[in-house]
Amino acid sequence: MRVLHLEDSRIDAVITAHRLAMELPECRIDCAATREQFEAAVAEGAFDLIVSDYSMHGYSGVAALEHARQRCPDKPFIFFSGTLGEKRALAALERGAADFVSKDEPAQLVPAIRRALARREGWREQASNPPIQLRAGSVRGMGEGILVIDDEQWLRELFTEILTARGYRVYPAGSGAEGLALYERHRPEIALVLTDMTMEGMDGVAVIRALRARAGGLPVLGMSGLAGTGLYDEAVAALGVRLLAKPLKCGTLLTAIRAALGPVQA
Q: pLDDT value at position 122?
C-alpha cells in the first residue's frame, strides 16, 4: 500500500508517517509539501490513497481534492486536519472526499484509510463480477433505458458496465444539466433515472424536481454517500423517490431498479 501525504508542516508529516508505519507496516508513504510536489506525484499515479491537510501555505486541501478528482478519481482522498470543522468536513464530503479525520483524533486515521480502501475494492469486485451478487434472474433488464447522472467518471463507467451486463441500455451524464439535456433528447427511450445527490451546480434534489416537472410518473432513484444523515432524506422522500446509500452493492442497485420499473412481462 502506498499513501500520498500532502502536508506542509514537517513536524506533522513526520508524526503521521510514524503513526502509519507503526499501525500499517506494509504502508509506504510519499510526502508532498507543495502544490508542485503534489501534482507531480498525482501525475505519476504510484499510490493507492491520498491523505491531505486542509489549510497550507500557498495551496489548499480543497484545490488538491479538485485536482485529484480530475486526474485520479478512483483514488480515495482523506482530509487529515486540525482546522477542518464540522461545516468544512461536510462540504469536503460533498466535494468527493472519502473521509475526514481531525488531527485531535489521530487514532482515527488508520481506520479511515482502511474503510476508504475497502469501499474502493468493493466497487472493483462488483465491477469485475457483478452476477456473483445476484441470485434471481428477475432483476435482469429487457433493454430498458436508464439515465445515470453522476459527476464521478469512474462511477458512471462502473454503473454503465454493470447495467449493460444485466440487459439495460445506459445513458451516462456527468452533471444535472447534462442529464436533463440527455433526457430531453432520449425521452422515449429512458425508462428510469438514477441520479447522485451531491453534484456541483445542480444537485440531485434540483434534478429530481426538474424531472418531476417534465414527467411526473418517471421512475427515479437517488443515491448518496450521505444517505441517512438527514441532508437529503426528507427532500427526496417528499418527491416520492427512494434514496440508496453509497457505496451500493450490485444486488441492491439492480433489485431497486427492477422494483422501480416493475416486473418483467413474460
A: 59
Domain boundary among 107, 126, 145: 126
DSSP secondary structure string for all residues of 20-45: HHHH-TT-EEEEE-SHHHHHHHHHHT
Q: Do the beta carbons of residue 193 and residue 221 sit within 8 Å? A: yes
Do 117 and 136 lie in a common domain?
Answer: no
Q: Which whole-number Å values give the CA distances from 26 to 2, 22, 147, 182, 259, in the listed order?
A: 9, 10, 41, 46, 44
C-alpha cell at 250: 450490485
The model carries a pTM of: 0.53
Contact 258, 144 (CB under 8 A): no
Residue 266 lies in a domain: no
| Intervals of the chain under pLDDT 50 | 129-138, 266
Contact 221, 252 (CB under 8 A): no
9 near 34, Cβ under 8 Å? no
User: What's the domain range around 210?
Assistant: 130-261
* b/e map 212-230, b = 16+ CB within 10 Å: eeeeeebbbbbbbbbbeee
Judge if 83 and 202 occupy the same domain: no
Same structural domain, 210 and 238: yes
**Residues 202, 81 within the same domain:** no
Query: Quick one: how far is CA 93 from the chain centroid?
Result: 9
Supply the CATH number for residue 158's domain: 3.40.50.2300
